[in-house]
Structure formats: structure tokens, C-alpha cells
# Entry
Amino acid sequence: MKSLTNRESFFASLPEMKALFGNLVTVKDKEGCHCPGIHQGFIASIIQFQPLLEIAVFTSDGTKVEFTLKEAISTPIEICKTFTSSLGLIMDQRFSVLGNQVFLHVEFSRDPDAGIRDFSVDFSGALLFSPQGVPYHWEDEKKVNAYIKSTQELHGIWKETSFVLRFSKTLKGLALHKINAEEIKREQYFSSHNLKKRYTYWVERPQRGGYDEASSLCSRNMGYAGAWIPDFADGKKASIDINFSVLSTNEVADSDSPKPIEEVTTLLNNEWEEYIKKIPNFRCSEKNLEKIYYTSWYILKSGRIHFPEKRFTYPFTSVNKFHYYNQFFWDSAFQAIAWLWFNDPDPSESEMKNFVAHQWRNGMIPYELFMYPVNGREWMDGDSLTSGTTQPPVIGITLKEVFTKFGNKAYLHFFYDSLVEYERWLSLYRDLGKRGLSSYVNIWETGWDNSPRFDAAARNRVLDPFIEGVDFNVYIYILRETILQIASVLGKPEPQGIREHQAMTKRSMNELMYNQEDHFYYDLEAATDHRIPVKTAAGLLPLMTDIPSAAQRSALIDRYLCSEKEFLTTAPVPSVSQSEESYSSYDFWRGANWPQITWSVLYGICESEPDEAGKVLDRFLHSTSANENCYEYYDSATGEGAGLPFQGWGALYTDFIIRFVVGIHPTKEGFRFNPISKEYRNFQLDNLILKGRKISIERKGQTWNIGIAGYGVITYVETLICDVDLSGVEIAISFDPKKADLSSISFSGASYWQENTLFLKAEC
# Structure
């Protein structure tokens, strides 16, 4: 199989995205719209341009020239389109996004024999204040100030963000006007039980200009319009450059002309080349799996953001740049796992740092960091900069995995004291019964917004009574274990009370949450023994820990996880069991599959129950990898993407593939080789760096080749689990003789055996 080595082959492995991502600005085509122009622009999901800029051409007698899209080429670098008309006029467009700027080059060429001579080009767009995921209650929060600075520049300001739309040629009649709410087309794209409906927006050309024109406006929604008369200096071609820049209010727009599109393309090419060098190469005979792997890396890079504000000192990965720019606690924790295999620790290590930097004085770590101040009423007394509640504390798993992979003690030092304070807050303020079980207080805090497990308790997002969630306490249990491990690594004394809290949690979960009659874990009403009788995937998450006994683990796996009547759907693991009346395969947390939940289950059982883990993994990958994007969640009955595309934790395929299919599990010394997939049998992974060593893994049917640069290649038939120690001058590979035929193992370089360990010597 050919190994991926450069930008061209990386791009060839991606589906057509029709979207370009910058830092604070994102642009994408509108589905079904073939009009010339840039169709949808998003500024940090607060301001939408629908469209950012549309182009219409008119002959000298006012007749609109109808264009047909002849060709469109889309890459992560640029989108190029060619439009033709019956009048012999050709329009070529190239646009790119670099940082916080959009660059559009438009060129017209004409056939002198076709008849069209003079014509005008109309530009128009619609600016809508339409935040996604953040409510703004006061009218002054919803208004944008905009003004025409010159016939070549449109400026706008909202809170700490400003924008500039610039044209390289002088326009005629550039002006603004208000757009009324009824003039905005809304199309519902998402609706779920107990949730608000979600819409996309569009403003038609007649509503964007031509009446009530003004040079300045303060409004929630407005349009702009202007015209340009092309000058065919050489008689054949005329062109114009348009630049859209997003800035913080303390920045000044570059007064020089925008960069030419060729220079932008060169800069982007170089940026992508440097990024791709740090990605492990993956080739697979199952092309869907290969494509979703590279799509994941595309989305991770596209989602990266550095907000120019002191509250966001550390770069992070946006949940979804079309809808949720704010940083979310458990999203970032799983996104750090997706970044784990990048051959640079910075993205994984920085992902969670903003949260502890804004930990509350009482120890609470907020679940959401707002890029813009809000009044916080819907976040239970938030401080307008952070939410007043927390979220499932997956941070314990993240810190453990990131440190194990990269081994940076300074990373642990950064988090340690904050984690101790956080655990203390969870125990002091959320353990109402003082029995080791902490409780959720708000629907949004759970992350499972519309789950039927909360139907009886939800009171306009507040939970009454509070709920002791199985998942919440599993993640807290792991968090406590991580704190103890960090203390050991850093040579610190164990924090007082954590082991006792762990023991109480284990005892209470088994005595109170676990139902001996049907062998399942259920949520509890806080500080009571009343179970909430709904089987959700949360009840499987104790499998991530040593909380269940051997018998309890078997029951959870045999009766539930691997039962096609319960959780073994086409795309496992559904958020609600199929046996529940409330189950709906595509409905959010009422039965849809969420990739981070599937990952959590596999993480918990891949070592102890590899066959069952492989069954779940192969079903999930086979059904969902056919999608041409990484989704927020999936229809558990079909595997079809049902949530938002371009989703951060949707990129967990990087870990699904490298950890579970290829079989590389990071350890302190190197890695444990333990692949669990039974379906994927022909693939190659290389350019993976672990502990400074470059690793390659190849599988051809029954044969495995494990290569370590500078040492050689190990070859054997069948899957042999082993531990690879990369820390010494000689590399040690230890096998379990009860599970491996050591005589079947061969090595291409210098080596020697010592009992059940193969020692590899460096090549001369």
C-alpha cells in the first residue's frame, strides 16, 4: 500500500467539504445554491453572513446575466469555481481563508464576438446576529454597529469583535439597510424531544439592498449592496479582489491592499505541509475507514482556535465552528484524546488548560468558557464569563492518557492542585448523602440534554430532585484514581480523603445503583435509594473501572452490551437501550449513538474483554465510517450522521483506529500492542512517533509486521499481544508465553531472547 507522504495525497483522501476554516471566521457553500459568490460566513458563531457576498451581473439595459456553474474544485486550501453564460461572459472565482481573513479573487473574461460589451456587477450580503448555543437576552447585546467608511470599505463592530469588508476597486452606491425578521428565511435542520428547534438562515437578494439605504446602522440584521463597473483595460479580462477580515477591537485593519490570492495559497500550502508531516500515515483496503481517518485530522486542524483574549491563554479546539465556538469541558477532554496521536504534544496538552485557569475559588471547574460576556441567567448564576455548573469530569482520563503518551511532568504540575480542589468541591458540595455519590443539578451539566433518565426531574433545565448519575460518578472515580497517580509521579503525599471517597463510591454504586434483579446500574435521586428505572448507556460505564465484580461485568456485557435487544445496535452503543419505550435511534440522547460514549465503553473493556470490544468496535466503524464527515452523533440503527457535522469529538476516529484497530495503547515505557478488530485485516500505519522512536505497523491478513526505525521489523502470524519498552538503548518486547507461539516470531535485525522477552539491538 502506498504511504501518505504529502499534501496532495492527504487532500485526495478527503471527501469534498465545500467549507474553509479560519481562526474566528468560517465560510461554506449553501447547499443547493449555485449562484456566484461566497454563500455563508460565520464569525465565531455569533454573527452570520447569509450570504457573505453574492454576485449578480447586469447588462447595460438592466437584463440579469444568468450564469451556469461549469466547474468547481474544493480543497482545504481554496475553492475555485468557473461560471459560464449564454452571452459569452465567463466568471472565475478563487477564494481562501487564512487566519481571520477571507480572500476572494473574481475575474471576468468575455468573448468579443458574443455581443456583451458593458455590464455592471452587483455585490450584496446579509449580516445577521444569530448566536448558536449562547442566549443573549438584552436588546443591546443583539445589535451590530456597521458603517460605510468609503466606497471600498464596510466596517462593523460587536462587543470585542470587529470586521472589515474591503474591495480592491471603487464601488458605486455601497450602502446598508435594515432587514426585518420576516424577511429572513428559516429552515429547520434539527429538532429533538424537549429541545429548541434549530434553524439555518438565508436572506434573498431583494432584501439585501435597494431601499432605506444608509451609511451607518445599528441593528440585529442588516444587508449591504454596491455595484462595480468592470474596466477591461486589455479588452479581454477584468478582475477585483475582495477581502473580509475579523479583528478584535484593539486591532487595526491592515491599511495595505489585501494579499494577492497566489500569496495566500502559498502560505496555506506551507501551513498544511507542516501539519501533515506530524500526522501518522494510515492506509487501509477499506477506503471508508481510511477516508474518515484523514477527515478527522482535517476537522481537528480546522477546529483549532486561539481567541485573542486573556481568558483564553491557551489554544483549544472549537466544538463546532458553525455553532459552538465557546469552549466546553467534556468536549475538550475527548478532543485532547483525538489529538493524542499527533506527533506534537501541544494540541493535546493545551486543550484543557483554560478550564483550570478559570477554576472558581470554591474549586468548581466550569463546563463552559464564554468567548463573549453574557448575562449568564441560563447558566445558574454564572459570572458571565464562565458557566456556574460543571460537566462530566473526563479530565481524569485525558490527563492520564496525555501524560502516558508524552511523559511531560510539567503538564501534570500545571493541573495537580486544581484537580485536588475540584475533587474536594465535588465531594463537599455535590455529595448530598455523604456516601461517595455526587449529583448533577442541571440538565446542561449532564451533557445528556434530553435523556429520558431526566424526564421526571427536569424543571426548565434545573433538576429537581438532583440526580446522582452513574456516568458522573464513574468519571469522578477515575478522576480520583488519576489524582493519586499524579501525586505518586510528582512525589507528593496523597491528598487526604481521596482513597476513602473512592471506596465509598464503589460501595454505594454496587449497593444502591446496581439492581441485583436485572443486573444493571441506574441513576439515583440524590441522597435517596430511589433508582430511576431507565436503561441508558450510562449504566454501562462502570465497565471503565474496577467497580463491578467479575460477575457484574459479565452480566453487563452479556445481557446488555452484546445483546441485540439492548445495546448492540448497527452503530453501538446507543444512548438508550432498544428495550426502552423512549428509544429513538436518531434522537439526540434518546437513542442516538454518541462516539465518545462508544469510545468510553471500548476503553473500559478492550483489555479484559477484547472479543466483545472487537464486536462493538467493528460494528461502529463499519456503519459510521461510510459518512463523509465526522458527526456529533449518529443514528444508532443505521450509522448515518444525525447531529452536527464538523464536530470536534467526532474526530475520535484517530484514536478508534490507532488504539483499537492498529492496536497501539501508550504505556509509560512505550506501548502495549493489543488490536481488537476482527474485521479490518489489511492496513498500514507509519510515521507514528512514540518516546522519540518512529513506529510502523502493517497487517496483511494473518501476518503482522511491526517496524521500529533504526532497529528492524518483527514479523509473526496471528495476533500476539505484547508490551514494547522503548525507553532503553535496546528495545525490549515482552510476550505472554501462554498466549503466544514464540517460535513463530522472526526479526529482521540483530536480537536475542531472554526468557519471554525479545531484545532488539540498534542497526549499525
